[in-house]
Design brief:
five-stranded mixed beta sheet, 14 helices, Rhopdopsin 7-helix transmembrane proteins, Heat Shock Protein 90, 3 domains, 11 strands, alpha+beta
């Protein structure tokens, strides 16, 4: 019913390629009219449309004479003379910045184009029409070399420039150039097989009508590279190429049938493939966009993380400078308070003595706070020094208990110690004492009544120190966060107990520097707590060094 002969199929093929080239060229140009990349692609698409029309006329001239056919073949060569230079200019400008585009390169390029265009319209490129195999074949002339340099040569130069730019490019720009490279490679191969090789070697022009397909392949790849710059996933490209190919095949079948029944079947098949293709394309694009969004979010988070690290570094430096500046006047103030209390500036009254005592306690609190800031800054800047040596851990813990016993007694608490097992370990005694003091001091601070027990025991090739109390206790959320910087437990909110949330963080850093670990546990609020740390018997081998 709808039977096409060979020429009918050729007309359909030319129509499809002309339509595809026009749509791609228009969409790309409209996408960004101010971009020279888009402008050059629009010019290239216009040249390809012109080539498709004159190429068909060269195979089927209005007047079936050798002279008419030769005329249209020369017009084809004339149009092709502009395709090579336009492609090279597009490659040079792609994907948006100029590359080696100077007057000394532009003038020879335009000169070669003009020479090739002029030679194409004369008998220099093709002298006449011959019939070696019964089909018309143009006979090359001496000027074919000029045309080859202009068309084939510039294709090769474009390919070389793309390879060079691809090797220098990164990320999305590299993906764009890869698409362009594939387009030029497939186009050059396709055209070479069906035109140059067929005409020159096999003396036949039967496959010349496939030439427009090669340019549409190029247009498709380049348009994707320019417009779909956010979808360079090979899965998307392959899917779209497959879908378009299926559409062309099934659409062409509609016009190649003789029976009404087969015609109806092919229409239904085409509609099914068309709907399926749209759905598949959108599905793949959606998947790729989600991946791109996730990648973009990850990149943004990485940048934000780097900025936060820089801010944290600046904060640490500020803490270090500020703490050093504060430490000096506080130490001077402490000295003067002691002098006044000892009568160095004359006898003081009982009331004055109480005031000085309160001042000394506040000053001590500030000194302790500044020391914590100093410890933080040294740890985070890698300037904390650890003097590892053999010492008696039992005596160290006992010294802390004795020092804090009076404070516990004043609060109505009982402080006791139970130590057994290994006595001597290798470590920084001052840092270990700081941790034990902090644990016991916190236990006194957060306990209203009962007993505070300090235990030293052997535990799995190491030593475990435990401070138990009957104080506030805490929930699971505090258990996992206590040793983080600036964390204040939920259990002490709405109480008059003050703190910075830095002490336990410093303790963790000190113990980890010894190769140990810290933890805390509690049955629940109001049921007491237990703070522990573990030290290996064979610590990391660091002696008098900054960690």
């Amino acid at each position: 019913m709808f039977s096409f002969n060979g020429q009918g199929f050729e007309i359909l093929l030319n129509f499809i390629t002309f339509f595809a080239s026009s749509v791609l060229g228009t969409l790309t140009f409209v996408k960004d009219r101010k971009s020279w990349t888009n402008r050059l692609f629009g010019i290239l698409a216009l040249l390809i449309d012109t080539y498709i029309v004159v190429n068909y006329l060269s195979l089927h001239p209005p007047q079936a004479t050798p002279e008419s056919q030769l005329f249209w073949i020369r017009i084809v060569m004339f149009v092709c003379s502009f395709i090579g230079p336009t492609l090279l200019l597009l490659v040079i400008n792609f994907p948006g910045r100029l590359f080696l585009l100077k007057n000394k390169f532009l003038i020879p390029l335009l000169s070669l184009m003009c020479l090739s265009a002029g030679a194409s319209l004369s008998n220099l490129v093709f002298e006449s029409i011959g019939y070696p195999n019964g089909s018309p074949v143009p006979v090359p002339g001496a000027g074919i070399v000029i045309f080859a340099l202009d068309f084939v040569g510039l294709f090769l130069v474009s390919f070389g420039v793309l390879i060079y730019k691809y090797r220098k490019a990164v990320d999305q720009e590299k993906a764009k150039l890869l698409l362009f490279l594939l387009g030029v490679l497939f186009t050059f191969t396709f055209m070479g097989v069906f035109t140059v090789v067929a005409v020159v070697l096999f003396k036949t022009s039967s496959g010349v009508f496939f030439g427009p397909i090669s340019f549409v392949i190029l247009s498709s790849f380049v348009a994707f590279a320019i417009i779909k710059h956010g979808l360079f996933n090979i899965k998307v490209i392959a899917t779209k190429i497959l879908i378009v190919t299926l559409w062309i095949i099934f659409f062409s079948r509609i016009f190649l049938n003789e029976s009404t029944r087969q015609y109806s079947i092919d229409i239904v098949l085409f509609l099914v493939i068309f709907i399926f293709g749209i759905g598949l394309s959108r599905s793949v694009e959606r998947e790729v966009k989600q991946k791109e969004a996730a990648t973009s979010m990850a990149d943004s988070l990485e940048i934000a993380n780097l900025k936060l690290q820089e801010l944290d570094r600046q904060k640490t430096e500020f803490l270090s400078i500020a703490s050093h500046q504060l430490r000096t006047p506080l130490s001077i103030l402490k000295g003067y308070i002691e002098l006044i209390e000892d009568g160095g500036y004359g006898k003081i009254t009982k009331e004055t003595g109480q005031i000085l005592k309160n001042m000394d306690e506040s000053n001590e609190h500030l000194i302790k706070l500044v020391d914590e800031f100093l410890n933080i800054s040294r740890i985070e800047q890698g300037r904390a020094k650890y003097n590892f040596a053999d010492f008696d851990i039992i005596n160290t813990v006992k010294g802390v208990v004795v020092e804090l016993d009076k404070r516990a007694e004043d609060k109505g608490l009982k402080l006791k110690m139970a130590g057994k097992g290994v006595r001597h370990i290798v470590g920084d005694e001052e840092k270990i004492r700081h941790v034990v003091f902090n644990f016991v001091d916190n236990a006194i601070k957060y306990t209203e009544k009962g007993v505070i027990e300090v235990g030293v025991d052997n535990d799995k090739d190491g030593l475990k120190i435990t401070v138990s109390d009957h104080g506030f206790g805490f929930e699971k959320v505090d258990e996992v966060n206590f040793f983080q910087k600036f964390y204040r437990g939920q259990n002490v909110k709405n109480t008059n107990v003050t703190g910075t949330g830095l002490g336990l963080y410093v303790c963790r850093k000190f113990i980890e520097a010894h190769g140990g670990k810290v933890w805390a546990r509690s049955v629940g609020l109001g049921k007491g707590s237990e703070f522990c740390f573990w030290l290996p018997l064979k610590p990391i081998e660091v002696v008098n060094s900054a960690v």
